[in-house]
Amino acid sequence: MGILKCGYLGPPGTYSEQAGISYFTVDEKLVSYNSIYNIFEGIQSGEIDRGLVPIENSLEGAVNVSMDLLYSNSFVTILAELIFPINNCLLVEKGVGLADITKVYSHPQPIGQSNKFINSKLSAASISYTASTAEAAEIVKGSSDSAVIGSERISDIYGLEVIAKKIQDNDNNFTRFFVIANKLDIGGLVYKKDRDYKTSLICAPRINKSGALYNILGDFAEEGVNLTRIESRPTKRQLGEYLFYIDFEGHRQEKNIKKALDGVQEKSSFFRVLGSYLIEKI
Amino acid sequence: MGILKCGYLGPPGTYSEQAGISYFTVDEKLVSYNSIYNIFEGIQSGEIDRGLVPIENSLEGAVNVSMDLLYSNSFVTILAELIFPINNCLLVEKGVGLADITKVYSHPQPIGQSNKFINSKLSAASISYTASTAEAAEIVKGSSDSAVIGSERISDIYGLEVIAKKIQDNDNNFTRFFVIANKLDIGGLVYKKDRDYKTSLICAPRINKSGALYNILGDFAEEGVNLTRIESRPTKRQLGEYLFYIDFEGHRQEKNIKKALDGVQEKSSFFRVLGSYLIEKI
To answer: In which pathway does this enzyme or protein participate (chains A, B) (predicted)?
Structure first.
């Protein structure tokens, strides 16, 4: 199928791009999108073959936009999950030192994650928020008294120098991504017994009352299926009505999992398996 | 105890303020805070007696900041829950008509919620995002060609005119608030058998493995306790490790609920009841 085109949440220099570079091979082309919504649209229209979308972060929790789009775009399936470490760096124009910095620019998230470093090493600097780390890099480029907090990748793109690495408060900062594709494109994916798989599904209990989720989880417990994540999202129809996102170990073609899924489907008014996929660590 | 001081997420004109006005009596004083974090701080220091914090919205889901602060501030207890309808209005300077509007200002959320109205009635207008609806109102005040999307309350504060009501796409837009207080202040709250209560807790299963949440939910199912919400949040220590927030009907002093809670506590490495509280509808 020629060169694969892979969409990510841009602009270049984001952690999403860095994760994409680590995961995809050089024969694949990374395409920058300005929203997660547009990545899903690109997959539907065939503009791209794969999408890399952030799903959850170890500090911030679920990425709700991605969760909601997985529900509303039924043509999508998950091919892989990617665990990517988020390492914030401090970058400056070449020759600028820590003592020269009077202004720090970045997206609110990296700044919020680097409080301790800012308070101890940059306590006199003013903080300005930008829409992306790339926008901050544009501002800092050529400046003799400002710095940007962002990914190491920004150094390659903007020719800025990394003067501090891993400046985040909490070292357990990982983002989990899904590699998604259009179901129409990947009909022929083969299940290999010797590989580690996970499976994700969305369901809504048929009766939204006491014990509904308990009964659903019972189907997994009975079959000894190891659940790795349960998230709820509003159905957007009524306060107090939820969809459940459940991730577990194993492939939907395994016998015990098939059995558990049959039980869950029977108890659900909405039920969709998002895919059985490979686990990739970077 | 004299006049109660009640903190809310400001500035004046927000939906939080409107909810506060509906709930608290005229003898209580509303105090504007610029972050939910600062409301919790105000309660700890005794600067305010009550805090009104948004917990979840029927369209957007959980308010993660509030969830995380309930976990990290153990001095706080929940006194009441409040369900407040979010109704977006279009407001202009007096005398300005729909046809005059070429610019629309608001926080990204009300704009995102009012897509259909904007596309059908204001398709030629440019959209500008502001940090709050109050900031947008400041800009629109005195202008002959711009409008702000926000709460009806903005009309009282800025003397602007409401020219359209309920312009949101989805009419099921409700925000659930908690009224919180310092445990030290409300030692003497009495449980009344004839009132409707809900209880909220946070727990982390002792063993983070297959069936852990299932076993916890089993304690509630056995005692016939009706769960109304389950949310997970990351522990921030390791990707894949979660805290569970569970809400259910009833008061912790009821016999069956006591029994269920004992069972849950036994299976948890972290366990805290946030409070048994009254349900208030506006």
So the answer is: Amino-acid biosynthesis; L-phenylalanine biosynthesis; phenylpyruvate from prephenate: step 1/1
Confidence at B1, pLDDT banded by 50, 70, 90: low
Strand partners, B233: B243
Specify whether the CB–CB gap between B58 and A236 falls below 8 A.
yes
CB-CB contact of B63 with B57 (8 Å)? yes
Query: How would residue A201 be classed by pLDDT, with cut points 50, 70 and 90?
Result: very high
Tokens 């969760």 belong to residue: A67
- Cis peptide bond upstream of A11, omega within 30: yes
The more confidently predicted of residues A83 and B194 is: A83
The count of residues in chain B is: 282
Phi, psi at residue B72, to the nearest 5°?
-85, -10
What is the C-alpha to C-alpha distance for residues A112 and A126, in angstroms, rounded to an integer?
14
Rounded to whole angstroms, how far apart are CA atoms A43 and A72?
A: 14
Distance (Å, rounded) from C-alpha A142 to C-alpha A126? 18
CB distance B58–A238 less than 8 Å? yes
* Closest residue by Cα to residue A273 from A242, A257, A255: A257
B213: chain A residues, CB-CB within 8 Å = 217, 227, 230
Is residue B175 annotated as a catalytic residue, yes or no?
Answer: yes
CA distance B234 to B232: 7
CA distance linking residue A97 with residue A92, whole number of Å: 8
Q: Which of B37, B58, B173, B245 would best serve as a mutation to test chain A binding (most A beta carbons within 10 A)? A: B58
Distance from C-alpha of A231 to C-alpha of A124, rounded to nearest angstrom? 41
B6 within 8 A of B30, measured Cβ to Cβ = yes
Helix (H, G, I), strand (E, B) or coil at B79: strand
ipTM attached to this prediction: 0.81
End-to-end CA distance of chain A: 26
Average pLDDT over residues B229-246: 92
Strand partners, A51: A7, A180
Q: Which residues of A touch B (CB under 8 A)?
A: 56-61, 64, 83, 170, 172, 174, 176, 209-211, 213-214, 217-218, 220-221, 224-234, 236-240, 242
Q: What spatial distance separates the first Cα and last Cα of chain B, rounded to whole Å?
A: 26
d(CA B174, CA A255): 43
Asked if B66 and B262 count as a contact pair (C-beta separation under 8 A), the reply is no
Residue reference for tokens 């939204």: A208
Is A24 a catalytic site residue? Answer: no
Task: Select from A214, A226, A237 the Cβ nearest to the Cβ of B209.
Answer: A226
Residue B216's φ and ψ, nearest 5 degrees, are -65, -45
| Helix residue ranges per DSSP H, A30-77 | 36-45, 64-72
What are the φ and ψ backbone dihedral angles of B136, each rounded to 5 degrees?
-65, -40
pLDDT at A168 over 80: yes
| Nearest-by-Cβ selection for A214 from B214, B234, B242 | B214
The percent of chain B in helix, strand and coil, each rounded to the nearest 5, is: 30, 35, 35
B210 pLDDT tier (thresholds 50, 70, 90) = low
| Four-residue CA torsion sign, B144, B147, B153, B157 | negative
- Go through the domains of chain B in sequence order and give each one's CATH number: 1-86+173-182 (3.40.190.10), 89-164 (3.40.190.10), 197-282 (3.30.70.260)
